[in-house]
UniProtKB/TrEMBL annotation:
<feature type="domain" description="Ketoreductase">
    <location>
        <begin position="8"/>
        <end position="190"/>
    </location>
</feature>
<dbReference type="InterPro" id="IPR020904">
    <property type="entry name" value="Sc_DH/Rdtase_CS"/>
</dbReference>
<dbReference type="InterPro" id="IPR057326">
    <property type="entry name" value="KR_dom"/>
</dbReference>
<dbReference type="InterPro" id="IPR002347">
    <property type="entry name" value="SDR_fam"/>
</dbReference>
<dbReference type="InterPro" id="IPR036291">
    <property type="entry name" value="NAD(P)-bd_dom_sf"/>
</dbReference>
<keyword id="KW-0560">Oxidoreductase</keyword>
<comment type="similarity">
    <text>Belongs to the short-chain dehydrogenases/reductases (SDR) family.</text>
</comment>
<dbReference type="Pfam" id="PF00106">
    <property type="entry name" value="adh_short"/>
</dbReference>
<protein>
    <submittedName>
        <fullName>SDR family oxidoreductase</fullName>
    </submittedName>
</protein>
<dbReference type="InterPro" id="IPR051911">
    <property type="entry name" value="SDR_oxidoreductase"/>
</dbReference>
Amino acid sequence: MTTASGNRVWFITGASKGLGRAFTLAALEAGDRVVALARDTAPLDELVAAHEGRLLALPLDVTDRDAVFAAVARAVEHFGRLDIVVNNAGILHLGMLEEFTEAQARAQMETNFFGALWVSQAVMPHLRARGSGHILQISSIGALGGFPSNGMYSASKFALEGMSEALAMEAAAFGVKVTIVQPGGYWTDLYTTGLTATEPLEAYDPLRAELQKQWAEGSVDSDPRLAAEAVMHLVASDDPPLRLLLGSMVYDLAFDISRRRMDTWAAWEEVSRAAEHAIPAPGDPA
Ligand code: NDP
């Protein structure tokens, strides 16, 4: 059974702005208590003052594994328990794969993948002992497939999803649920001040120009409060899904990409099936 609204304790990373802040506000509006994690907690000061006793803001850089474990321990000590954990902190480093420095590529993975892994590892002993809990992994439209100039971001979110599918299966026996949330476009700082980019190689200028045209024509950005509303529906469910798409654009794209994948697999079925044939292992009696 899910814990009733108004009585839940949330742990939300990257809560200073954007989607994380919208999730924090929605949880507070529902009467819940929140541990809001941010590298800089100053943007949360007003909220803390306005929700005395129900909002604990703690500084946390999710790439620091020891700090993650310490923050989780502090959160549990403060509110006595955790019910909903939102791995939301994320960065977007745009660029063609050839342009990435090693440090840039690793930084993308450190926050979007390892940060969520450390938080998942740190909360699991607590949720497992309680026999309940719901971990939300904020993934992306970028994990539906790879897109030019989004390769490292997609890689980080694919890694997050692979890890989270396994976690969902490992955690199920302990009553802990995992949902991979796949948002489309929302008005946040991810594409403005939160964005970093590689040093551009001239050879990719035509592709970059084409992409910019496509984004200008095709991007649909929504109010983060709509994502928060969907998340509130999700956490109220006794049987939450492994994956939840947020937005019509990402919904249509998911079906389109899945169909194209199935068509390609079907077109190559003969070759695929021929690559498997039971033969005795070396040393087995014939
Ligand atoms: P924002 O840039 O507005 O917010 C990102 C948040 O993550 C900030 O609070 C930021 O804190 C925090 N953060 C970044 N790095 C770290 C770190 N190392 N440790 C702790 N916190 C960190 O972006 P969004 O709100 O859009 O992004 C939230 C999540 O949603 C991300 O995982 C993103 O990939 C995902 N997403 C967003 C989409 C969108 O359209 N906006 C679409 C698909 C997915 P700080 O202020 O310290 O930088």
